[in-house]
Write a structure and sequence with these properties.
heterodimer, A: 116 residues, alpha/beta, Immunoglobulin-like, 1 helix, 7 strands, 32% strand, rod-shaped, B: Purple Acid Phosphatase, chain A, domain 2, 6-stranded mixed beta sheet, 5-stranded mixed beta sheet, 8 helices, 21% strand, globular
Chain lengths: 116, 328
């Protein structure tokens, strides 16, 4: 009887550990899922040229310049309205890939997001 | 002789250059234009480039040639709605520009505004500019800047300022024997690109000037520079060369632009290129800052770096006289 109880408790612990392991793994994934990256737009620039982000990241552009800018995908996937100083625009990248964008008002301003 | 004394001597003695029939000695013209901010005024009278210290005698001299000339004014980049450090009060500086126009000894026939009327394409911003410019009592012709077409591909702009225009807002008209061509180079801008006119507009230009005699003076006005000033900052137009090739046969072509918020000039054969002051805020000289944004100047100097351009045409003379003057 004692052996049976021991075996049962060990099995239970093992089972619980296995469940815990999978639960933790999943929640680790959802931590990455909710990450937000901020891009400061200033001096007619989108900051660092290429930004690498994990899949399902939300990128938020904040215009710190004293003229308006837009964030516009070159492939027509996303397009902000004209952002005045301190205005923000956010887009969530759910698929891996390379996303080029530019400012439609000042087209020399270009940027790239690489999603993995 | 020190440079200052030399300038004064030349100014009081009148700077004269020999001219052939077709127009201005290029070096003289450019040298004269360099004085524009110092308080000297260059005028073309009877084909001779003359300079006068500002405020002296211009009224009288000009009056004697009143019948043979007419003039118009270029203003640009009023950016109504801008309120940051470089100029917290663009209303006041636009009003000062209107006063400057009213103070001209020869009143201009009409005004050209080379774009960025508003800062954010808001109806209230356009309304404010319209209200302020009413005080000039002059007809005004507008072309859009990139700030004027932010939300609707320029539909509101065309409705307000260029109802009779073609395509995305280009049009032409005649005044006193001069053919004026209003172009739009701020739409459909490509990533990494410069200003653009597009094939439809280029075809229209070719057609528009086709029937004109080569002796017809041409004035082209558009927001972004139609010459390559500083491509790194987007200061140029990709297909300008194609547009200008249609104007090669004309004896006098003047190209008036804005966008860069500083005066700049280039003379190339029969073509004079000119960019105007802004009435709102200055921008740095090419390459002199991280970017081409609004530039703060020391207190009290703002009115020195904003202004208007007075443009004279004398019958029979090919090249137009361009005089930039700051608000103070």
């Amino acid at each position: 009887m004692k052996t049976r109880m021991f075996v049962s408790s060990v099995s239970a612990v093992l089972a619980l550990s296995l469940i815990a392991f999978f639960v933790l793994r999943t929640s680790a994934k959802s931590n990455i899922k909710s990450s937000t990256i901020e891009v400061q737009v200033d001096n007619f620039s989108f900051g660092v040229g290429t930004l690498n982000v994990p899949t399902n990241s939300t990128v938020t552009w904040v215009n710190k310049d004293d003229v308006p800018h837009t964030v516009t995908s070159t492939d027509g996937l996303f397009k902000s309205k004209a952002l005045d100083t301190d205005d923000k625009y956010a887009y969530t990248f759910t698929k891996p890939g390379t996303y080029s964008y530019y400012c439609t008002i000042h087209p020399k301003m270009v940027g790239k997001i690489v999603v993995r | 002789m020190t440079k200052k004394n030399q300038l004064n001597a030349e100014a009081s003695g009148l700077l004269r250059y020999d001219h052939n029939n077709d127009g201005i000695n290029r070096r003289g013209f450019l040298k004269c234009m360099a004085w524009a901010g110092t308080g000297a005024v260059c005028l073309i009278e009877a084909g001779v480039l003359k300079s006068y210290p500002l405020g002296q005698q211009i009224g009288k001299k000009a009056q004697s040639h009143r019948d043979a000339r007419f003039s118009f004014v270029q203003i640009s980049d009023s950016h109504m709605g801008f309120n940051k450090l470089a100029n917290p009060d663009v209303v006041a500086t636009l009003k000062a520009a209107v006063n400057r126009i009213s103070a001209l000894p020869n009143q201009p026939d009409f005004i050209l505004h080379t774009g960025d009327i508003s800062h954010l394409s808001k109806p209230s911003e356009f309304d404010n500019v319209d209200q302020i410019l009413k005080a000039t009592n002059k007809e005004i012709f507008f072309v859009p800047g990139e700030h004027d077409v932010l939300n609707d591909d320029g539909a509101m702009f065309r409705e307000r300022y260029s109802k009779k225009s073609k395509g995305q807002g280009w049009y032409s008209f005649e005044k006193n024997g001069i053919h004026f061509i209003a172009l739009v180079n701020v739409m459909d801008l490509k990533p990494g690109g410069l200003g653009t006119l597009g094939n439809q507009q280029l075809e229209w230009i070719k057609d528009d000037v086709h029937h004109l005699k080569s002796s017809t003076p041409i004035v082209v006005f558009a927001h972004m520079p139609l010459w390559s000033i500083y491509p790194q900052w987007g200061w140029g137009t990709e297909d300008a060369a194609q547009a200008l090739s249609n104007l090669k046969r004309f004896g006098s072509v003047t190209v008036l632009n804005g966008h860069i918020h500083q005066t700049m000039q280039k003379v190339e054969g029969n073509v004079t290129f000119h960019t105007a002051f802004s009435t709102a805020f200055p921008q740095p000289a090419p390459g002199n800052a991280e970017g081409p944004g609004p530039m703060k100047v020391p207190a009290g100097q703002l009115h020195n770096v904003l202004g208007i351009t007075d443009i004279h045409y004398v019958q029979g003379r090919h090249a137009l006289g361009l005089v930039d003057s700051s608000l103070t």
